[in-house]
Amino acid sequence: MKVLVVDDQADNRQLLKFILDDYGFEYYEASNGKEALDVFAQHAGIAIILMDVNMPVMDGLEATRRIKSEAGNRFVPVIFITALDNPDSLRECLNSGGDDFIGKPVDEVVLISRLEVHKRNYESYQTIAKQNQELIYHNEMTNCEHAVVDHVFKNVIYRPGSEVDGVTTYVSPVAMFNGDVCLSKKSVGGGIYSFIGDFTGHGLSAAIGTMPMADIFFAMSSKGAAIEAIVREMNTKLMQILPPNMFCCAIIIHISNDHRRLRVWSGGMHEVYLLNEDSDIIDLVRSQHMPLGLLEDFEFEEDVVEILLPPKTRVLAYTDGLVEAENHGGEQFGTNRLRAAVLSSKGQSLIPHLLNAVTSFKDGADQDDDLSMVEVFCDCERQQQVNLKAEAQRNVRAQKLKTDTHLANVLPWQFKISLNAAELRRDDALLNLVSILQAAGVEYAQSSLSYTIISELFNNALEHGLLQLDSSLKSEAEGFEQYYDTRKQRLHELKEGNIEIDLSIRPPETLTKTEEKYVEEMIMNTKPFLDIIITDSGDGFTLSEDSYEKEESSYGRGLELLKALCHSLEYSLGGRRVHASLLLE
């Protein structure tokens, strides 16, 4: 260990050199404070300094102050060797940065004992400093890795199209990474998918599972998949990747295109609140299943709850971090306080109101669990939306008439499928149509519009052609539930029958006279048409403007919607076949 001796008396320096040499210390010397600064600067490894107080050029007190300043975070003990013995002088030595003092004449035993003590302190400090540097390095590396993971995580979870009108979410992680996940996606026909999940634990280990969930959710909801298929795929994936002690409590909901029907799958979560526009509770959907990632595929249950929604319904789902939030006394917010807060919202947006309630209850207590909420506002009064959509489409057409020519080169093609009774019972019967249209060169906006038309015509063929349902039931609000109960029962009992869907792209030169007139009016003669022909094997049904207008007033769909979206619409074969044409822009 290197020791610097600073004394203006050569005899004193020589005496200390003999002692230090005997005990294996490496010796350096200086005759005043200024020389001490130079020697200290030249030999970075000096560990202990033996400093005299009164010296010419620069005294020991000033030299100590400067050495301590230059040392920065390094620990370099300074031991004053002085004949001074009054308390004020000794206090001044320590205040200047000294760590210890030894009286003159120097006693060898005392000197070596003090040096050994400070040697241990120095070595301990060096060990701590080294460990601290290692910790700083690992912390920086961890922060870099977290930044990369956070970037990937956000790109997976928060992707284009994940913000949906009518859906409000709140996510508050207890750590940097979140074991809760909230996902939303607008379906191709105008409905809403929403998923909220709570993985075991928090932090990075819990957040890892959210990424494959997001991939599955966005991929399958983009294709219009049934929520039964989505949760089954999620469960299969989690069974493959999660350790046995991890799982995901989850809720996935789907709001139908007309915002009239709610479908819910819930596993291991608290109840879903359904509220009217005055925030009165109209229903609670309780969990019916085990969490995702616990059951093998043959054990997994995918049954969903289906509910008809009155106008302006709010749907609230949340993770247990809300009801299990604790105040300073360890008391939980609980379901009773949640219910009271919900009822007191009085038509306001629920999430800000609930956050105020739980924040007030906690009164500054630390958050100890991830907390997430999702609120979906459902409005089945569709006529105004249809009008706005039709107006927006007209504006888009007007802007694109003179500039958009990319579809003029789309090749003609035809695609035909036939669905039997068993296939018609599947909620995802029309699953891949949007992907097929996009693969054929039809852009997303037009493929989504096409899907809306196809699904509307398909449902008409199924409900009126094969199932022989009476639309007059829907003329009264209370008849909706009876209508859909009957639909579900008859579809379950359907043994025979089929619906054929025929899609084709028709180039402009094949347009009919009526269509040519329409195109001329639109100043566009280079746009192809998409032909949609749907044929069912039922007994047919009689169409009338009056019946559709009656349906339109209560349901928000029907002939007026189809007329607004299509450029031509014709029924034949006694109502068993419908031919719709859509100009692709």
Automatic annotation (TrEMBL):
Gene Ontology terms for molecular function: phosphatase activity
Q: Kindly state which keywords UniProt assigns to this record, in alphabetical order.
A: Hydrolase, Phosphoprotein
Q: Which residues form the Response regulatory domain?
A: 2-119
Q: Name one Pfam family in it.
A: SpoIIE
Q: Does the keyword Transmembrane helix apply?
A: no
Instruction: Please indicate if the UniProt record lists Phosphoprotein as a keyword.
Output: yes
Q: Which residues carry this modification: 4-aspartylphosphate?
A: 52
Q: Name one GO biological process term.
A: phosphorelay signal transduction system
Q: What is this protein called?
A: Fused response regulator/phosphatase
